[in-house]
């Protein structure tokens, strides 16, 4: 019996040491990106607040809502994905941004889910337009050059 007690105590001590070695979980206060100024919002997400809200409304029917208390809202998922698309940067940078402070795996899942929703014909036909003629293509090229000329 003494051996069983010692094994139990040893197991409890090992579990306590393991728990003490883990980094504490950091929980950030969720900030509402829509409280940013319009200029800063556009700089971060490359869309106006109005267009971002409209895009959220368009993809919302295709987004699965999580059941956990800590599940990301549709707004948070969309804005996290938009931040990634706008920055063209690595997911880690986006996860560390205080306006979308989420884990790298949540960033990855959000991007995947929003891409799938945006690829739906109902959404894609509204938001993504390709030139259909050579004239349209030349017009877009000229606009691009005018807009981006230094």
Description:
The model has no long low-confidence stretch (mean pLDDT 83). The protein starts with a helix and ends with a helix. Helix content is 64%, strand content 0%. The chain has 150 residues and is mainly alpha-helical. It contains eight helices and no strands.
SSE diagram, text form:
Blueprint: H1 2-21, H2 38-45, H3 49-59, H4 74-87, H5 91-96, H6 104-118, H7 121-127, H8 134-148
Largest sheet: none
Number of domains: 1
Could you give the distance between the termini?
83 Å
Give a count of the beta strands, DSSP E runs of length 2 or more. 0
Shape: elongated
Unreliable runs: none
Please provide the ordered H/E string of secondary-structure elements. Answer: HHHHHHHH
Share of helical residues? 55-70%
Number of helices: 8
Mean pLDDT: 83
SS-based class: mainly alpha
Strand coverage percent: under 5%
Radius of gyration (Å):
23 Å
């Amino acid at each position: 019996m003494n051996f069983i007690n010692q094994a139990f105590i040893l197991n409890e001590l090992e579990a306590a040491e393991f728990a003490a070695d883990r980094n504490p979980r950091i929980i950030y206060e969720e900030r509402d990106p829509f409280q940013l100024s319009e200029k800063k919002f556009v700089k971060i997400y490359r869309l106006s607040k109005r267009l971002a809200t409209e895009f959220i409304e368009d993809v919302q029917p295709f987004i699965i809502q999580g059941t956990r208390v800590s599940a990301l809202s549709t707004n948070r998922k969309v804005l996290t994905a938009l931040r990634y698309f706008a920055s063209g940067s690595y997911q880690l940078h986006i996860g560390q941004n205080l306006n979308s402070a989420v884990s790298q795996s949540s960033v990855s899942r959000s991007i995947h889910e929003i891409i799938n929703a945006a690829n739906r014909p109902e959404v894609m036909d509204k938001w993504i337009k390709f030139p259909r003629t050579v004239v349209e293509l030349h017009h877009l090229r000229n606009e691009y050059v005018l807009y981006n000329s230094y």
